[in-house]
């Protein structure tokens, strides 16, 4: 822009000089130079108009960029507030189970039909935790236990695990039980560890022994020996320690 203005001023100064010369006497050479200067001035005016239009468009774009920056900054501040104030574990929407059959082994491995779930009041010494949440495992090979939605097919598995403790549930726990020695996040981290143990257990039980290592085979037979008529084929676990005291 500065170069164009400088060029324009130089041409104007030359034009003034030629006008002074023309007043003393006209000549063909002077007329040709004046025509060239007139054309040059026309081009300069066109460029100046184009530059002015471009600058106006850039001003509008700059204002829009400032608005976008302000919105992004507002969203950034909101996200920072959420990270500082929201709990690490948020409760999910758990739909009530509509299943009536639970099978821990594929039918083609046990050569049996899926067994009926044993009600909680008929479990005896077996302790089952409720509610349970579904853990998404798309591949059958990765899912150690499942609920059969099609009796004739064994390709659909639904893994189960303990659900997180919600804020309201944790507040309803009597203070004398935990005595403020443990937070809800610690409890939910323990639930994560528990779900990993359950998945590992039933992954081993579902696997063929020929594919297991020596250490995994030992665990396999340990789990098998712990089964009885009440627990065989049913997702279960047995409480053998105090959960609260273990989380201190």
Structural summary, described in words:
Residues 92-117 are annotated as: Disordered. Pfam families: SKA1. InterPro entries: SKA1 (IPR009829), SKA1_MBD_sf (IPR042031). It is a single chain. The chain has 248 residues and is mostly helical. It folds into 2 domains: 2-85; 107-246, Arc Repressor Mutant, subunit A, CATH 1.10.10. 54% of the residues lie in helices and 3% in strands. The protein contains 8 helices and 2 strands, in the order αααββααααα. The chain has a two-stranded antiparallel ribbon with strand order 1-2. The radius of gyration is 40 Å and the shape is elongated.
How do the SSEs run, as a string of H and E?
HHHEEHHHHH
Please provide the count of β strands: 2
**Oligomeric state of the chains in view:** single chain
Q: What about the largest sheet? A: 2 strands, antiparallel
How many domain units?
A: 2
Number of helices: 8
Q: What is the mean pLDDT?
A: 69
